[in-house]
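Exercise: predict the fold of this chain.
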Amino acid sequence: MGLTLTEKILKAHVVDGEFVKGSEIGIRIDQTLTQDATGTMAYLEFEAMGVPRVKTERSVAYIDHNTLQSGFENADDHRFIGSVAKKHGIYFSRPGNGICHQVHLERFGAPGKTLIGSDSHTPTGGGIGMIAIGAGGLDVAVAMGGGAYYITYPKIVKVELTGKLSPWVSAKDVILEVLRRLSVKGGVGKVIEYCGEGVKTLSVPERATITNMGAELGATTSIFPSDETTREFLKAQKREDVYVPLSADPDAVYDEVVEINLSELVPLAACPHSPDNVKTVEEIGKLKIDQVCIGSCTNSSLMDMMKVAHILKGKTVHPDVSLSIAPGSKQVLNMLAQNGALAVMIDAGARILESACGPCIGMGQSPNSKGVSLRTFNRNFEGRSGTKDGQIYLVSPEMAAASALTGYLTDPRTLEGSFEFTMPKEFVINDNMVVPPATEAEMDSVEILRGPNIKPFPETAPLSETIECGCSLKVGDNITTDHIMPAGAKILPLRSNIPAISNYCFTVCDEKFPERAKSMGKSIIVGGSNYGQGSSREHAALAPLYLGVKAVLVKSFARIHRANLINAGILPLTFVNEADYENIAQGDELVIADVRKAVSEGKTQLTVVNKTNGKEIPVLCELTGRTKDIVLAGGLLDYTRESLK
């Protein structure tokens, strides 16, 4: 029996565990990336391990999230990350060099390699045949120190692509169609592997758009084969030396198969407030818009930007619409400036933003009250834009540009003619904004520069004998990490200061939660299905840890957040019977007796006693030998310190 592409790469990297579906495996990590919203904490964690220099083939620290410097905090974090990178063997991508995923695809990613990043959209690297996985910062720190990264051996879903996209239908429509079919929970525990004749019709930037938004499926990652198209892209980036051809065996066996005829796809949009709330333009109807934002790690490639420039050329943005455009990297921005496309965008009335994440994480460009904003981004969670009642639609660059001209949601197929973008034979290469690390001989003389906003990792403690405390919060289904730990220009600068940022924890759901949790001292949170979907931000676990949360009991978890809770030493529990969710109310007193003994003995079913109403609730505590030891130790940092002794 042949192997899938996913299995081939994983098998070549397994260093611990059995290569069996559903079991936990540890894989060797070749590359890591961080960004500044998660990077400061990741590097504080790396320092705490006491490893002098990274042991990966290539680790890169990017500055792309917190680039709005309205106070000293972000600039201090950037300076700290730059000094840590120089001292410990990490390449440093300076502010202005671009969005981590776009730059990594262009300059560092390599087929067949493993990559983890402290950002949930790290699977972008799957567009060139990498196993690229989003993870918590602590997992990335461990990988930089030479430790394995652990995942559950995934199910593998084959997405068979046939046909070819019609004019003005895009790669964004492909992944929106997958989301429409599978939902934001449909990829949990799975890798999405794209195959078929249709793959050959898609460029590397188009493939990267599709793998990028695989994160919204809850998938472990997504991957395309490495083929002649991949080689041409790497050759144009003057990196052909890293190319290797990679594909699944013809007789590979998959757990599921999804078939998509690219020729049959039409322009789609994800409606508020979920990426899987997907409809056609006809289904949505005539929708007046207020804002259009083009960019993000999903759609900011040179290909995307040239399509937008073609649509805007010689025209003017509708007077009722604010259009902003953020090229994804310095390379893209440079090439737009040199070929005249940047002037076309400016002439049309676009507001040109720096090459950074910007509006996608609420860093500026928040829409007006109840404003309808079309965005080429990957998430449209409620409030994420910075405007609580903002109505965010996720669309392709083609639909975004066409709509910016008309003032209404517009099907790009109504545009005259067509536009075929030809990938350049050579990209403009200038890596002067990537600072290499100090040599081993120089590293001891490098000083780590810390600002007053940078606080140490929260105190942890081994799992207690019994957990007895109140339920501090009860929430519903599909709680995102934006609910737990909001982003935005006001809060993101506090990412290196857990005591300060914890004051915003869950305030989207309940403004009194931080104060209540502090007053309770220790507590349990109860939630519904798909708890913790969204970004990889470990702050959504570290802030509850700081506020005294000892366990989280839900119907089901999103993958990265569950791992982050374990890394923080917070006990992840799920209901045996989902109906028992109704048997706990906020404020109820809960007891999990002899929990340390039960976890130590490997018991997978515990009992939560609700002292308030007398109910006994069976719950699952599914921890492997390694994750069991992490929770017992009080978290991954404590566990790693002990293992390195």
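Check your answer against the key: The chain has 21 helices and 27 strands.
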